[in-house]
Description:
Helix content is 35%, strand content 15%. It is of the alpha+beta class. The strands form 2 sheets. It has a 5-stranded mixed beta sheet. The chain has a two-stranded antiparallel ribbon with strand order 6-7. A hairpin with a 2-residue loop joins strand 6 and strand 7 (103-105).
Amino acid sequence: MGRQLTLHILRYNPDKPEVKPYLQPFKLEEEERMTLFVALNKIREEQDPTLQFDFVCRAAICGSCGMLINGKPTLACKTLTKDLPNEITLMPLPVFQMLGDLSVDTGTWFRELNIKTEAWIKTEKKFDPTALEDRMSNDEALAIYEADRCIECGCCIGGCATANINPDFLGAAGINRVARFMVDPRDERSEAEYFEIVGTGEGVFGCVGLMACDDNCPMEIPLQEQLAYVRRKMALAGIKM
Ligand code: SF4
Ligand code: FES
């Protein structure tokens, strides 16, 4: 017989603001290799079909299932209940628009981020389908790959003190996104152009250095290094301007 778990889940329906948010306890028996994804599904199937939460891949790939698990922003599909105490509190990620219970809208936030950071390669070069492919060094390709591993789960944003008080802050995910294009040799943006995007209080200079993002990123992207890289480049660009 497995442990008796109690999941205290935040319930709130933004369409019914007259019902204040509250924590609802659900009891269930732990099973071997149970993830929080399995636990939440069991609760929805067996106890309350109205419970809202997001999952797509169940394999830490899609980034849908970020939530606060005992206060820590992380992926529910990657979290085994055996690593948690008997009492588990689940809340939605802050910062993002709440859709209901544990479900938040990270998609709109990340779409806006991509627009704000102009997250595409900017070049004057005309595409020539007959030309040989441009080569890049292994180090450049690896640096791009490292930053591109972001699955847009929002855990770095939900746990960030600055993002929680300043809705315009790009956050670690945004600064990492900018770093991805800075290291790309095909991108022809000048440092001054990048400064406009990220050399501000809403960008890299808004970070107060608590580095919860680095602790919370389930993909273990070296966010501290990425922030330091962009901050160094933007500080130098600011001196030159
Ligand atoms: Fe999630 Fe990490 Fe990307 Fe932040 S940087 S959104 S924590 S994968
Ligand atoms: Fe896709 Fe958790 S369900 S990351």
